[in-house]
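Response to reviewer comment R2.3. The reviewers asked that we include at least one raw input/output pair. We reproduce the pair for Choline/ethanolamine kinase family protein here without editing.
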Amino acid sequence: MNNTIINFLQNEMKWNKLNISSIEKIGGLSSENYKVSYNNNNYFVKICTHNYLHTDRKSELSIINKAIEINLAPHLYYFSTETGNMISSWINGTMPSLNDFSSTKFLHKLSVALNSFHNLKCQKYFNPFNHIRKRINLCNDLNLPLPKSIDTLLNHLNNLEVKLSKNPLIGLCHNDLNASNIILTEDNIYFVDYEYSSMGDVFFDLATISWFFNERSRKNLLELYFNECTEQHYEKLLDYLFVVKFYNATWSLLKSSDSSSDYDYLAGAKMIFNDLLDYNSIRNF
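Raw output as returned:
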């Protein structure tokens, strides 16, 4: 068994090692995640390993508790506001598939969950434009290979910031709603990994979800979320998709500097940067 996680469970939770029947590592990009069986119950355990932009763990805990109150997050047993390490109940569910994301039934369930979460409040505000610029500065400090076109991309980002700041639709956003942070069960849908959650334009979440959608599915999502899909809605979704991809490209490039994963984060960053340059690929996917 993994000595690091066993020591954590013994020291922080006072668990008896003899009652731990299994520890299964289940991945994680910014953390080490485990499924742990203890006293015939299963738990999700997260051990945080990196923190590039000094995540506000107190805010994260507050938001998790708000999500628990509306049945969007698993029950929490332990959370450290110093490290972000946490233990929650294990949810027997699945990550949504491509078929799910093309299903109107699933998108309706997802839209209801999103609206419930977006109606919550917190004190922290998320500005993706500033985050992207901070990450670019970090990449420069670490001598990471930003694309030669970075000034062109930044110029377009700055123009979008002016455009999108005029009529923001503010709500409590998850800000990392890729499929791996959504758990689907027979009777519910859960969001996990709230470390980036804060107030912001809800289109950031909608764009993140629709990254790999075709035009029809994107418009279906907007119709279900807003009860209508206008040209303005769709244009704003595509504008935010550029922002979301830029945000993820800089994250992947930073992650390439110290990752222990087999995944090639540098290649992933290059792929997204190339996609950003081909802006039509976002608008006409």
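The longest helix spans residues 231-255. The mean pLDDT is 93. Further pairs are available on request from the corresponding author.
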